[in-house]
Design brief:
Layout lengths: L2 H37 L21 H12 L2 H6 L5 H34 L5 H26 L10 H25 L9 H27 L19 H4 L8 H4 L1 H28 L4 H26 L4 H25 L20
């Protein structure tokens, strides 16, 4: 391969990395805007799904009146916000509109560069399949977002917490997939560590997603606004079984009982912290390489900060500034857990060296 070809390949690789990094950053911002939309009760202010024409907000008094009338027709307005003024409606409308606009921006920011890189032949077969899968998940996310909003337009005064949790976890799954792909793009060998270290890194990543799902259920049920004590909850460190499982069938309590869901979220946080500490100590004692140890220690630090913010958010009954900071650090924990799991996973470079094809009959 000529020096010019090597230079061109390096330039393309660098451009792809910056592209994926930018998309990941946009998704992180969108998750935070989505959190603010939820905390300000703004998510049902737009009652129609118009993927193209909905990119424009109301531009005249007539259009604002029409949008407001659409909101007045749903149960949330009638039961919670009756008498709201147009200016108050605009304040919640802009949160939801910004959230949807960011979704459109992410779709364009992903698709157009992706098609250009495909045309330039920048991807290997494996990487191409992975990036198409991420694009498909992004399209699914738009559908899930409307599926979530639709759950609050006819009978409920809020969106389904099941659908809210699905929407959030899918967004963070896409984010983690991009972070993983960024890591795989670099041609570096796997770290030589024990099977136990590799296994705990995977369990940490899975447990992080479980905790994110439970956090979304807590948000959807407004479970953070009750049982605002710590370390006790409902009068003890472990509530009574009669209070945790009063609903029938019993498994519904795991998703619908505010006490049980908050208790699950707390216990999973303790488990995540304990496993992260074990993983870090194991990395140090087994004399893993410096990157593995640093990754484990940073993960413990982020989880510790996240747990502290969670406690403060609970004790203060979910003020928006603490709640959003708690959510932002959750994204940092997910990033570190993804990087650590990828670092210890068996790998093949995403950038495959191009084969030199010689003309038929030419000795090689």
């Amino acid at each position: 391969m000529s020096d010019q070809a090597v230079f061109d390949q390096a330039s393309r690789d660098r451009a792809v990395r910056w592209w994926l990094l930018a998309v990941a950053a946009l998704i992180a911002i969108m998750v935070l805007v989505g959190g603010a939309t939820r905390l300000t009760e703004s998510g049902l202010s737009i009652t129609e799904w118009k993927p193209v024409t909905g990119a424009l907000p109301p531009l005249s008094d007539t259009q604002w009146t029409q949008a407001f009338e659409g909101y007045k027709a749903i149960p949330q307005y009638r039961e919670l916000n009756a008498g709201m003024s147009l200016s108050e409606f605009k304040s919640i409308f802009w949160w939801e509109w910004s959230h949807r606009l960011l979704g459109r921006v992410i779709g364009i920011a992903y698709l157009l560069p992706f098609l250009w890189f495909l045309w330039r032949g920048a991807f290997s077969g494996e990487l191409k399949r992975r990036l198409w899968a991420i694009f498909a998940l992004g399209g699914l996310q738009g559908v899930v977002g409307w599926w979530m909003v639709a759950s609050g337009l006819s009978v409920r005064v809020e969106v389904s917490h099941y659908r809210l949790a699905t929407h959030l976890v899918l967004a963070l799954l896409i984010f983690a997939a991009i972070v993983w792909t960024l890591r795989r793009w670099a041609d570096r060998p796997s770290s030589a560590v024990s099977l136990r270290l590799k296994a705990t890194s995977v369990v940490l990543l899975v447990l992080t997603f479980v905790q994110l799902y439970l956090g979304a259920l807590v948000a959807g049920l407004r479970a953070g606004r009750v049982y605002n004590t710590w370390p006790d909850i409902d009068g003890g460190f472990i509530p009574s079984a009669a209070r945790l499982f009063f609903d029938q069938p019993w498994w519904r309590n795991l998703f619908d009982n505010t006490l049980t869901v908050q208790f699950e979220h707390r216990m999973t946080a303790y488990a995540l912290f304990a496993l992260a500490v074990f993983h870090a100590v194991d990395a140090i004692r087994s004399r893993a390489d410096g990157a593995v140890i640093r990754g484990a220690v940073w993960l413990v630090a982020a989880i510790t900060l996240q747990a502290t913010l969670g406690i403060l958010t609970l004790l203060n009954q979910v003020p928006i500034d603490l709640a959003l900071t708690h959510q932002a650090v959750a994204i940092a924990v997910l990033t570190l857990a993804t990087v650590q799991a990828e670092r210890l996973a068996a790998r093949q470079p995403a950038v495959q060296p191009r084969e030199l094809v010689l003309p038929l009959g030419q000795p090689g």
